[in-house]
Amino acid sequence: MVSIEFDNGVAWVTLNRPDKRNAMNPTLNARMLEVLDELEVDDRCQVLVLTGAGDSFSAGMDLKEYFRETEAKGHMATRRAQRDSYGWWRRLRWFEKPSIAMVNGWCFGGAFSPLFACDLAVAADEAQFGLSEINWGIIPGGNVTKVVADLMSQREAMYYILTGETFDGRKAAEMKLVNFSVPRAELRARVRAIADNLLEKNPHTLKAAKDAFKRVVEMPFDAAEDYLVVRQESLNFLDKSEGRKQGIKQFIDDKTYRPGLGAYKRG
Fold this sequence. Notes:
Blueprint: E1 2-7, E2 10-15, H1 26-40, E3 47-52, E4 56-58, H2 63-72, H3 75-93, E5 99-103, E6 106-108, H4 112-117, E7 120-124, E8 128-130, H5 144-151, H6 154-163, E9 166-168, H7 169-174, E10 180-182, H8 187-199, H9 203-216, H10 221-238, H11 243-252
Parallel strand pairs: 2-3, 3-5, 4-6, 5-7, 6-8, 7-10
Antiparallel strand pairs: 1-2, 8-9
Helix pairs in contact: 1-3, 2-3, 9-10
């Protein structure tokens, strides 16, 4: 259901149901909760990359197993299935380490939620995206509607929600659903380069920076200002390597780096 490959600080996590276009069923969702728990305390994972096996990122929720079979078991079975799926997307969003979605192919419906949960996203130009829910009688649920409302313009989001039309990786980048797209042949190398950049950074600061951004997006200005002051003070306490002091020392005293051109050297 899920495979993990460790490679020099990066955990490549692959949704592994290629025969089903990596559609998410209850078993996969439960396993992903376990995977995230495991990787959060595994030093071999400093950056997490989420992708899909074969020609798909994920076709969304498994219509047969997630919907029909779960609903046949009654209300509480449906709620348990929702808790697992929504749960791992939430865990991924607040994961302790930076995460990158590598969208190698089909990304439909429910797959927009883990796409959004990752801190960064890179797509293949050839990848196909779509909100197909309208075509089979439901709305984009599981927070998918919230995802497109946050990441896309209202006109573009409404167009794809109502028509169910597909769009490619280039269009996804144009709409800022992903950071950018590259030809599929270059996708893994480009994601690896981003991961290597992140590996140079202070991990405590990465966590604080990404969480701070996600929190202040929904705050009024004054509340965000107060929160960010407290967040930095918390970071100063939690970072036992005293990265802030090291960075300032290496810039001002040692003159060994320039903050605008790269990261300070961690001990």
